[in-house]
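for the recovery benchmark. tokens below, seq after
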């Protein structure tokens, strides 16, 4: 008796502390992995400009995370349940930290960033060699020297970022499938949605920190401390600006390694949460030992892999759910990956401001939605069929609201020779030989270098030379150009560095877009937990870990990897002017066609999500008369069955006791 009581107390302490400790640790792991993931997504534009690569290649670098993930996801999901899950998660966090560190290495291995400019930062600013000089010899920065070209292209330094992202994907592999299956195995069925809601909330808190860090780093010049920032002729709103992208990766590396520590002190198994009676605890303890003995006696660890796979592939609800996830992930991966670039180009804001606004407007509603979804599932004991309806109709509501984004538009920036004529009239885009006009034809200006100035007539020009400016005053970012022959304005025709501001109306459109995005994010996140519970409850308990892993694998292969690549290529097709390297080759894009960019960014995801509702309605139809394996785990049903069984046992005990008493009385009388 004393030994049993001691074991019961030990189990209670272990259940209270270890389960909560694991929940806290896995939530922190989700925070760290999404911190580095959101930071990577936010720094894509900075990486594109740093290495002068097209958006399609940046999309491939971003998709390389999924490549690393899918290399191990199936095996980790299946074999992970046979091994020590907490330790595997801890090792994954350490590997993620190593990947983040590798991503920051190019900054320390290559030369300082040098942006294209007609104005020499290191040279004599008062020479005015970059201005309009009739019948003179113009000093053009881009040269044909192959050695300088190689230095400017930075060779294949972006490969470090690519490989680091792959390693980060490998490290992230065990966190979600093993963490979710661990909670499902040892938590009460009615507590499981709430716990998963807390974990998913960690996946939102991470991006909140990640976007804040990215906003800070994007506002700091990439070579700060190595160059005098007072001499810079660009600001964070300029498309040539590169923030200190490498600094945030170092922070992410440290956070990931620290997060790994608690997992090495957690046990392989826990008692099922909610066991109160002595018999239940002792029975659970015996079942644990029996499970371990059975696993040791198995001839091969892959004995049930193929049967599980066959069962999952023949499950129509599960397969339709995977199809929905693939289609919707294609839409959302594109929207989240290129959202900073879209808002920068559409509304003329700096990367720092845009990233900060995305975090403020989008993440808190998503966090609240996840928690509310978990609480609703717990409080009202939502069944699988009810959860499917909630997820479908809430998602459809948010989808319809998405179309309002098409009304929140801004016009293209007015750039003479690209989007407007030198007379200020709108012109057809992609016109050839429109860069030169009568006012600057004799100025001997470079026609490819992007060094924009804003005239006091509200029109931007590709450079001060192409604006026909003859003199300048001041230095650095405060330089003012005067006597500009192409600027038709009353009084002195002058210009300042940078593109012209898009105005108050465009800023208001950005606010409306972000408010609508916040409402949509809340509605969609409210449906996320019910939708995820459909996935978990439509498969058998023993197939759960493999089912989650296979679901993740499919979304990585058919959405996470290809989506940024083809979407990046479509974005590249809307480029109006490419940056120029020293050797004259094309670099990163400097300005996009806002209208076409908008149609691709908003239209393609809308079309994809519309297709996803066909399998969604099929699932609702199948669930009408289908009994799912997870429905037995419904808390309400289990509670009712437990009470009924308890009452029946009590009645049986009373009947047996009365029979014993009657027999004793009969024997006494005899």
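predicted aa per position
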């Amino acid at each position: 008796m004393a030994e049993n009581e001691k074991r019961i107390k030990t189990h209670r302490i272990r259940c209270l502390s270890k389960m909560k400790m694991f929940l806290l640790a896995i939530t922190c792991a989700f925070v760290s992995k999404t911190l580095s993931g959101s930071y990577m997504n936010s720094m894509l534009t900075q990486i594109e400009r740093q290495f002068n690569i097209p958006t399609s290649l940046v999309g491939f670098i971003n998709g390389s995370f999924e490549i690393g993930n899918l290399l191990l996801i199936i095996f980790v999901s299946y074999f992970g349940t046979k091994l020590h899950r907490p330790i595997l998660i801890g090792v994954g966090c350490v590997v993620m930290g190593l990947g983040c560190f590798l991503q920051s290495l190019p900054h320390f291995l290559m030369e300082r960033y040098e942006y294209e400019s007609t104005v020499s930062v290191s040279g004599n600013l008062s020479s005015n060699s970059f201005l309009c000089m009739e019948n003179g010899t113009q000093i053009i920065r881009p040269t044909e020297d192959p050695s300088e070209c190689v230095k400017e292209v930075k060779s294949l330094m972006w490969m470090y970022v690519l490989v680091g992202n792959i390693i980060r994907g490998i490290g992230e592999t065990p966190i979600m499938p093993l963490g979710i299956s661990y909670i499902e195995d040892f938590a009460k069925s009615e507590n499981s949605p709430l716990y998963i809601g807390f974990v998913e909330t960690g996946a939102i808190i991470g991006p909140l920190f990640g976007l804040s860090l990215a906003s800070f780093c994007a506002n700091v010049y990439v070579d700060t401390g190595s160059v005098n920032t007072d001499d810079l002729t660009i600001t964070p709103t300029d498309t040539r600006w590169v923030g200190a992208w490498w600094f945030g990766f170092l922070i992410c590396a440290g956070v990931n390694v620290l997060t790994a520590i608690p997992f090495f002190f957690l046990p392989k198994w826990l008692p099922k949460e909610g066991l109160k009676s002595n018999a239940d605890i002792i029975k659970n303890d015996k079942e644990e030992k029996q499970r371990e003995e059975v696993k040791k006696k198995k001839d091969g660890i892959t004995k049930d892999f193929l049967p599980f796979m066959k069962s999952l592939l023949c499950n129509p609800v599960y397969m339709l759910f995977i199809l929905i996830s693939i289609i919707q992930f294609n839409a959302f991966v594109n929207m989240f990956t290129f959202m900073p670039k879209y808002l920068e180009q559409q509304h003329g804001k700096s990367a720092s401001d845009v990233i900060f606004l995305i975090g403020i407007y989008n993440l808190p509603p998503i966090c609240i939605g996840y928690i509310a979804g978990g609480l609703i599932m717990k409080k009202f004991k939502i069944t699988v069929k009810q959860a499917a309806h909630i997820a479908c109709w809430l998602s459809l509501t948010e989808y319809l609201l998405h179309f309002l984004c098409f009304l929140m538009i801004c016009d293209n920036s007015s750039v003479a020779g690209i989007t407007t004529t030198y007379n200020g009239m709108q012109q057809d885009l992609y016109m050839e030989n429109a860069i030169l006009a009568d006012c600057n034809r004799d100025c001997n200006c470079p026609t490819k270098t992007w060094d924009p100035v804003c005239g006091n007539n509200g029109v931007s020009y590709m450079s001060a030379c192409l604006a026909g400016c003859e003199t300048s005053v001041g230095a650095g970012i405060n330089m003012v150009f005067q006597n500009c022959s192409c600027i038709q304005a009353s009084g002195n025709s002058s210009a300042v560095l940078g593109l012209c501001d898009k105005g108050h109306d465009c800023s208001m459109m950005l606010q409306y877009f972000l408010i609508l995005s916040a409402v949509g994010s809340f509605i969609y996140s409210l449906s996320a937990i019910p939708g995820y519970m459909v996935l978990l409850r439509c498969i058998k308990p023993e197939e759960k870990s493999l089912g989650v892993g296979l679901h993740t694998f499919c979304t990585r292969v058919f959405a996470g990897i290809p989506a940024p690549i083809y979407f990046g290529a479509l974005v590249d097709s809307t480029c109006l002017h490419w940056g120029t390297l020293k050797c004259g080759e094309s670099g990163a894009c400097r300005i996009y066609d806002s209208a076409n960019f908008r149609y691709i960014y908003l239209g393609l995801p809308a079309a994809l999500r519309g297709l996803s509702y066909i399998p969604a309605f099929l699932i609702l139809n199948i669930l009408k008369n289908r009994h799912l394996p997870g429905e037995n785990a419904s808390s309400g049903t289990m509670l009712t069955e437990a009470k009924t069984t308890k009452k029946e046992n009590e009645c049986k005990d009373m009947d047996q006791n009365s029979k014993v008493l009657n027999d004793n009385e009969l024997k006494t009388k005899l």
